[in-house]
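Friendly challenge for the regulars: who can give me the structure tokens for this chain first? No prize, just bragging rights.
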Amino acid sequence: MLSSNRLISLDVLRGITISFMILVNTPGSWSYVYAPLRHAAWHGCTPTDLVFPFFLCIVGISIWFSFSKYGITLSITNTLKILKRSVVIFLLGFVLNLFPFFDFDNVRVMGVLQRIAIAYGIGAILCLSFKRRNLLIVLAVILLGYWALLFFGAASNPYSLQNNVVRTFDVFLFGKNHIYKGFGVPFDPEGLLSAIPAVGTVILGFLIGQIVAEKESLVFKVRKLLLYGSLFVLLGIMWNFVLPINKALWTSSYVLFTAGLCAILLALLMFIIDLKGVSVWSRPFVHFGTNPLFIFVLSGLYIKTINYLIKIPVSSGNKVSAYKYLYNEVFAPMLGNMNGSLMFALTHIIIFWSICYLLYRNKIFVKI
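First reply, four minutes later:
Bragging rights claimed.
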């Protein structure tokens, strides 16, 4: 299970998550994307909606293994380490939003890395502060409290795009110019208020990490992960009848549902890789999984660079971005619109895997 003090199955899970993130974030054209590779329009959950919560679950699992070396306790040293890492990740996300134009008047304040920073920071402090039983109580308070906040925070249609309290709070705090507008109105799916239940995702990941680290047989741990994962999924589905599963709002039902699926997938990976020893197929994902945040930042900078900074002349005499040029002149003519868009994304997975492989081969692990 362990290689160089790393959990291989966890690296593979992390690598699968990162590679799928590149796949869904880098289509050749957003007009031509297969349905499973899109986020749910509002309520519901597609495979794409699993990427972010899986990553936060992995963050929680990693908290257990990282801090178990120094003692699972909220010491001054551990607290400073958590706060420093949270600040660095948040600032990286903010700079990534600013790049390449550095328009402070319209920059989006929140984002994926910012949510990771907040959820990690608060989640790690809570996980190191409470024993398992009390941590479960904290988790219940977070999930039930957020549900109450959503329900009572709006005069009507509390789970709608227009009326939800998350949107109201973020618009009030940041202003409309500093919020994501991809939904047609100012609403940030990685807003500050909805970071509260994301902390719950990290806590569930931490509890999953405890199961993986138990001094029991591998078969017992796989069965336990499958049992608890199935229970979380069932609870999420049941809660969905009154609180819709919704990634944009990061609803409490979504937290349980996605954490359960993450636990199940980790159990399957442990069974295949660690118990059965079938691991050759997983090596590219191990490479991805050892430098996840670095690759996330690098991919973001790369996509913005070829989208906004590099322009290429076309036959019409105009100039288009390198991103559009690659899709329109290379991938779409060769494979058609839909498959060309998909192959564009798959090609970029290979490109970033090559970088990960070189880093892995040279034992370079960029810690953020």
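Residues 70 and 239 are 38 Å apart (CA to CA). The two ends are 25 Å apart (CA to CA). Your move, everyone else.
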